[in-house]
Design a protein that fits this description.
The protein is globular and about 40 Å long. Helix content is 0%, strand content 52%. A hairpin with a 7-residue loop joins strand 9 and strand 10. The protein is mainly β.
Length: 115
């Protein structure tokens, strides 16, 4: 199974930007997702990209976050702009070949947005 390693998290002021990276140990799968989990809340799907290039976003991040992938580097990115304190969470990447399988998960990277 492909191993995933996230990076790029950190502490940023509201209005700032971060770019998260998800490096895969092998060829990245057809469906790439970023999830996040804030303390005391359920994990939520933030962004998804499919191999054809189609993307979907949670309403809360539309217009601010952008998911992309670099197949040559086996890496998926999440560009986060205009960050808000409510974006504070641990962010996880997930790769899967189909919607019916759980796929691979990274260990998560902490994003903290201060007001």
């Amino acid at each position: 199974q492909v191993q995933l390693v996230e990076s790029g998290g950190g502490l940023v002021q509201a209005g700032g930007s971060l770019r998260l990276s998800c490096a895969a140990s092998g060829t990245i799968s057809s469906i790439n997702r970023w999830y996040r989990q804030a303390p005391g809340k359920q994990r939520e799907l933030v962004a998804q990209m499919r191999s054809g290039g189609s993307t979907t976003y949670a309403d809360s991040v539309k217009g601010r976050f952008t998911i992309s992938r670099d197949n040559a580097k086996n890496t998926v990115y999440l560009q986060m702009n205009s960050l808000k304190p409510e974006d504070t969470a641990v962010y996880y990447c997930n790769n899967r070949q189909s919607l019916s399988e759980p796929g691979s998960w990274g260990q998560g990277t902490q994003v903290t947005v201060s007001s």
